[in-house]
Design goal:
420 residues, 2% strand, 3 strands, Vanadium-containing Chloroperoxidase, domain 2
Length: 420
């Protein structure tokens, strides 16, 4: 589905980011504030798998710290309680600061200064001190639970053959091969393991579905394509590297601010969002390297040997944007869009929003959306019209992301039963 987005010049992105951090009636919400600090200072610079891991750990710690005070939801930890009257805002600050300072010690001075600024809004006294202690205890417990989670055991994938349909390294790949194979086995937060949500296989190379998808990306995804609408070129370039947690956390901040949610509600929302993204990446990588399906860049050049007489090869095909170095099926951008979309639609509804999306790599341009579906449609088009995914990659990613989100919403940090 193709849609046209209005492009416009923007002023200061810093002003937008600062505005997003504010809570009800100008009050700064510590959950939104530290989400912004984390991404602006360190998380935006991390590769997507590490980015979602750190974001999930931090926001689960923030949730557990706040929840130790408010007791609104079920906890993932044992025996974590705050002193009576503890400040939930101080708990959020203490948890976020402890996680970020531990994992990113080179930025300690920055996080220490941010902590002091945040705490100035909370009167000194036993309530603030007890809140900080609750947040720091939550952070320590969550970080301890993630030790030896398998994220620091890198593996690479080297294809066993050059058979049709088999993924082959593209020019962006390191000599070792496809990265992040080990992420399929990383310890999850909510789902059981990556195999739980493995997708059905991609379509056969001689199928009608494959043929249609092949022709679409070949015609519209080439760097020199004359059939690709100009706005789809802009969208493909805009979302080339922007996605995952770095895209959806700022969107969630905007929606949470507009809805004037409580601190506890925001703590839970961002824990669900980032744990869902983390576990989705585990499932996605498991699917990608289980099927190791080739990218359009490889498929279009090698179509003469794919056994499908309806797929004409083009030995000179070059995609509009750089092909990522991992198998095509399913699309990571589609999957990591479906998780937050499902969670945010169930929280705020699917339409009637005023969402602004910016990309630091394209200064001076902003996209505006009224629905979350519009964002998902643009991202689907961005990968196909960018020449790096088949349409069924996008459809598979949507399916997987939606299923993971539904499972996370059903099983994680649920509201406490009345009278508990």
């Amino acid at each position: 589905m193709m849609t046209t987005r209005k492009l416009m010049l923007v002023g200061s992105l810093l002003m937008l980011g600062a505005a997003q951090a504010r809570g009800d009636h100008g009050r700064v919400d510590a959950v939104l504030e530290w989400n912004r600090i984390a991404f602006e200072e360190v998380l935006n610079q991390q590769p997507p798998p590490e980015q979602v891991r750190f974001a999930a750990i931090m926001h689960l710690a923030v949730f557990e710290g706040v929840n130790a005070v408010t007791q609104d939801y079920e906890s993932t930890l044992e025996a974590l309680n705050a002193q009576r009257g503890a400040s939930p805002s101080a708990a959020a600050i203490g948890a976020a600061h402890r996680v970020l300072r531990t994992y990113f010690p080179d930025h300690a001075a920055t996080f220490d200064a941010a902590r002091e600024r945040s705490l100035r809004r909370i009167p000194k006294g036993p309530e603030r001190r007890a809140g900080l202690e609750a947040g720091e205890a939550a952070a320590d417990a969550v970080m301890a639970s993630r030790e030896n989670d398998g994220s620091d055991m890198p593996e690479f994938y080297v294809p066993a053959s050059t058979s049709p349909g088999e993924w082959q390294p593209t020019p962006s790949c390191p000599p070792e091969g496809g990265p992040y194979v080990h992420w399929a086995k990383v310890k999850t937060f909510v789902i059981r393991n990556g195999e739980q949500f493995r997708l059905p296989p991609p379509p056969a190379l001689n199928s009608e579905q494959y043929t249609r998808a092949y022709r679409e990306v070949k015609e519209n995804g080439a760097r020199d394509s004359t059939s690709r609408p100009p706005d789809r070129t802009q969208v493909a370039q805009f979302y080339e590297t922007l996605g995952d947690a770095a895209l959806w956390n700022p969107i969630a901040r905007q929606l949470a601010k507009a809805d004037r949610r409580t601190l506890a509600e925001n703590a839970r929302l961002f824990a669900l969002l980032n744990m869902g993204l983390h576990d989705l990446v585990v499932a996605l990588v498991e699917t990608k390297y289980h099927y190791h399906f080739w990218r359009p860049e490889t498929a279009i050049r090698a179509a003469g040997a794919d056994g499908n007489p309806r797929t004409e090869p083009d030995l000179s095909f070059v995609p509009l944007v750089t092909t990522p170095c991992h198998p095509s099926y399913a699309s990571g951008h589609a999957a990591t869009t479906a998780v937050p979309r499902e969670i945010l639609e169930r929280t705020f509804g699917g339409s009637g929003h005023k969402i602004v999306v910016v990309n630091p790599a394209m200064p001076g341009v902003v996209l505006k959306y009224k629905t979350l579906e519009q964002i998902a449609d643009d991202i689907d088009d961005a990968r196909v019209f960018g020449g790096i995914h088949f349409r069924f990659d996008q459809q598979g990613g949507r399916k997987q992301g939606r299923e993971v989100a539904e499972y996370v919403l059903l099983h994680a940090v649920k509201p406490r039963a009345a009278g508990h």
